[in-house]
Amino acid sequence: MYFYLYSQTTEVAGVVQVTPRHKVTRMEIEMIVEIPQGSRNKYEMDHETGAIWLDRTLFTATQYPLDYGFFPHTLGEDGDPLDALILLPQPTFPGCHMWARPIGVFWMTDEKGPDAKVLCVPSRDARYAHYRDLSDAPDFLLAEIANFFEVYKLIEPNKESTVGGWNGAAEAEKEIAAAIARYVP
C-alpha cells in the first residue's frame, strides 16, 4: 500500500491537476511538530504561510505527553490536518519535520466533532525499530495519553473532549488513507 502526498496543483481549462510531491511507503509518512513534549502552550501552524502561532496556553495543569503535530496534505474529520503524536527520546520544536511510522490511533471527539490522534514513532530511528503496533508501546504511556486528552480542555470555556479509546496500526493506516483522500489542495 502506498500513500501519495501532493504539493503542486495547476488548473488548465477549469480542470485541477495534482502532481505528486513524493510517494510515502506503507507505515511511513511525513509529520510536522507543532507542540513539543512538556509544553502547556498550544501552537498552531498557519498552513498557508508556515508561521507558528500561539493559539493558547492550556487552562489545566497538564502538559503535552509527547511531541504533537500533524500530517501535511491530509484532512481530518474536524476540518484540520490529521493530528499525530510521536514518541521521541527528546522534545523537538514547532515546525520540525520528520518521517513517522504510525503504530496506533486514539479516537476522541471535541467541540468540532471527531478528532483522531495517530500515535507514531520516528521511522528512521533504530531505537524504535521494534515498534510496529500499539502493543509495542508501554501501557502506562497509552493511559497517560488518554488521560491527557480526557482532561486537557476540562476547565476551558466553550471547549470539550470525549475520549473513545485505542486501535492499532492497521486502523491508523486506514485513518491516514481516509485523511489523504479527503484532502483537496
Features of the shown structure:
42% strand; disordered N terminus; 2 helices; Inorganic Pyrophosphatase; metal-binding; mainly beta; Pyrophosphatase_sf; inorganic diphosphate phosphatase activity; two-stranded antiparallel sheet; 185 residues; globular; magnesium ion binding
Describe the structure.
The protein has 185 residues and is mainly beta. It has one domain (28-182): Inorganic pyrophosphatase (Inorganic Pyrophosphatase), CATH 3.90.80. It has two helices and eleven strands; from the N terminus they run ββββββββββαβα. It has helices at 139-151, 169-182; strands at residues 2-12, 15-25, 29-35, 41-45, 52-57, 67-70, 83-86, 97-110, 113-114, 117-122, 161-168. The chain has a five-stranded mixed barrel with strand order 3-6-7-10-8. The radius of gyration is 16 Å and the shape is globular. Mean pLDDT is 90; it is low at 1-8.
| CATH fold-level topology | Inorganic Pyrophosphatase
Report the structural category: mainly beta
Let me know the average pLDDT: 90
Spatial order of the strands in the main sheet?
Answer: 3-6-7-10-8
Count of separate DSSP helical elements: 2
Into how many domains do the coordinates divide? 1
CATH class identity:
Alpha Beta
Order of helices and strands: EEEEEEEEEEHEH
Cofactor: Mg(2+)
InterPro entries: Pyrophosphatase, Pyrophosphatase_sf
Organism: freshwater metagenome
Keywords: Cytoplasm, Hydrolase, Magnesium, Metal-binding
